[in-house]
Amino acid sequence: xxxxxxxxxxxxxxxxxxxxxxxxxxxxxxxxxxxxxxxxxxxxxxxxxxxxxxxxxxxxxxxxxxxxxxxxxxxxxxxxxxxxxxxxxxxxxxxxxxxxxxxxxxxxxxxxxxxxxxxxxxxxxxxxxxxxxxxxxxxxxxxxxxxxxxxxxxxxxxxxxxxxxxxxxxxxxxxxxxxxxxxxxxxxxxxxxxxxxxxxxxxxxxxxxxxxxxxxxxxxxxxxxxxx
Length: 228
Hints:
Radius of gyration: 18 Å
CATH class of the largest domain: Alpha Beta
Number of domains: 2
Oligomer: single chain
């Protein structure tokens, strides 16, 4: 059976892509950079690759946050301040929220029956601002953010430090649910707990990172849990 469920936040419960586009468009425009769809998509590609390097231990969080804008501006031939743009972007990112369809209903359903925890790699100030805006914290017994734990998913240290704070925690009755194969699923496997991949169609499966279970809609999770 499953007793404890760890949820990723971005693109699992909250629509990060939509929030990212809105915040990025505003920050780039204020910086004097172009903000048309092609530029936003190129930033998204750079950003995804930078976070993957962080997950692999190649880059630090600080290098990722500022470096993604430095790389974008370099490609665009712009002499703008990447650190300043990053600060503005994160300020706007923390304002407002959009739910993944079915997320509030899912948490309301699971809350009485399971111990729910949040496990996120996002910047603490941004994530807490978004959690407050969405009123999500009321469903969770604990919130674990990599910046505060001093380790990022998928490192085992992230999970070990989170597990150590949970009374009577058992890996055998825990499940990690998230959209990222490289962060959530690989992280859960590194930590020795079962994993459920929320596959929304934007990421291809990988033979080297295999989840225990896969869902394509959040509404599929409660009936899956009934079988475990």
